[in-house]
Amino acid sequence: MPPTDAPATTAPVTAVPAPGTPRASGALLVLGFVLLSLNTRVAFGQIGPLAPVAGWGPGTVTLLALLPPLCMGLFAPLGALARRRLGEERGLFWASVLLLVGATLRTAGLTGLYAGTVLVAVAVAVVNVLIPVFVRARFAPRRIGTMTGVYALSMGAGSAVVAALVAPVADAWSWQAAIAIAVVPAALAAAGLVPQLRVARELRAAPEPAGPAAPVGRRPVGRTALGWSLTAFFGVQTLVFYATLAWLPTLLVDAGVSRTAAGTDQAVLILGLAVGGFLVPTLAAARSDQRPHILGVVAVCVLGLLGLVLAPAGGAPLWAAVLGIGMGGGQALAAVLFARRGTDPEHVAALSTMAQTWGYLLAATGPALASALRTASGTWTAPLLAMAGLLVAGCVLGLRAGRAVTNPRRDPSDR
User: How far apart are CA 224 and CA 190, in angstroms?
Assistant: First the structure.
C-alpha cells in the first residue's frame, strides 16, 4: 500500500499554483472558485420546492428535472473542448457568463424557464468537467480533497439558501420572482472569475511547462475498467440525486407535510449535501484507497431512503439530512476519484468527460422513472426502494474506481 497523503485538514486553505503556473492572488482565486461553486446547483434546486406552490403538473416537473442531467450529459464533451481551446480559466469564465444568461432567461415565463434551464445546464456541464482539472492544476496536491470539499460545500450552501427562499417568495409574489433569486449569485460568479482572465493571458504567454507524459499505448478511457467503474458509480449517484431533488417535496406533501415544511426539508437535504460534500472528499483525498468511502456514502444514502419509506412525515428532516449527507458525499467523492485516478491533466479530463457524459444521461431517466413507479404502484415506496437497489449495484460496480494501485499508469486493468 502506498503511503497516504498528509491530511487535508491540517492546514488552512491556500491557493498554490502548480509549477509553471503564474501566481494570482490566493484570495481572489479562492473567492472566484467559491462564487462559481455556489451556482452549480442553485437553478436545479428551485424546481422541487416550487412545484407544489406554482401548481405545475407532473409532466412539467418531470421535464424540468430531466433537462439538467440530460443537457449536462450531452454537453459534457464541450468541457474538454473548452479546455483545449480556452484553458481552464477562460473556459470557466465564459461558462459563468452563459450561466448568468440562462439564469436571467429562466424568469421569462414557462418557455423561458425551459430554455434558460438548458443554457444553465450547458454551462454547468462545462464547469463540471473543468473543475477537477482546475483544482489539480491550481492547488497543491494535498489541497485537492479540501478544495473539492469547498466546491461541494459551496454548491450545497448556495442551493440550500435558495431552496429555503423560493416558496415564501413565490407565495408573496410569483414563481417568476422566486426563480429570479438565482440571477444574483450568477452575476457574482461571473464577476468573481474576471481576475482569472489575467492568469489565462499569462499562461498563454508563458512557455508550456513540462508535465507528465501520457503512457505510451494508453487505451482510451472508454475501453478501460477504470472508466466504466467511475461512470457506473457517478451515474447511479447522480440518478438518485436528481430523482430526489425533483420529487422529495411532492413526496412529503403527499405524506401530509405542509408545502412550506416540505420546502424547508428540501433545504435540509441540500444542507446535508453541503456537509457530506465537504467531509467525504476531505477525508477520501487523504487516503490512497477510496473503497471504504464508496461503501460508506452508499450505506448512508440507503439509510436515508429507507427512513423515508418507514417515516416520511414524522422523520422528514432527519431522513432528508441523512440522505443529503450521503448523496453530497457521493457526488464529491467522484470528483476526487477523477483527480486521483487520472495520471495527467488530459487523463483527468477524459475520465471526467466520460463519466459525466454517460452518467448524466443515465441520471436523466431518474425523475421520469421515479414518477412512473409512483404512478404504477400508487405509492412512493416503490421508487424509493428501487433507488436503494440501484445504489447497491452502483457501489459494487464502482469499487474498482476506488482501488489504490501502486502504479496506475501501468495498471493492467486499464491498458
Answer: 37
C-alpha cell of 414?
A: 486499464
The amino acid occupying position 23 is R
Indicate the DSSP class of residue 193: T
The DSSP letter of residue 12 is -
Q: Which three cell numbers stand for residue 20?
A: 509553471
Cα distance from N-terminal residue to C-terminal residue, the chain: 21
Q: pLDDT by residue (tens digit) across 33-62?
A: 888 887 777 777 777 777 777 777 777 877
Q: Please, which contacts does 404-413 make with residues 24 or more away whose CB atoms are closer than 8 Å? A: 404/1, 404/2, 404/287, 404/288, 404/289, 404/290, 406/2, 408/341, 408/343, 409/215, 409/218, 409/343, 410/215, 411/226, 413/224, 413/225, 413/226
Could you report the per-residue pLDDT of 398-407, keeping only the tens digit for each? 999 888 765 5
Which residues does 363 contact at the CB level (< 8 Å), separation at least 6?
69, 73, 235, 238, 239, 241, 242
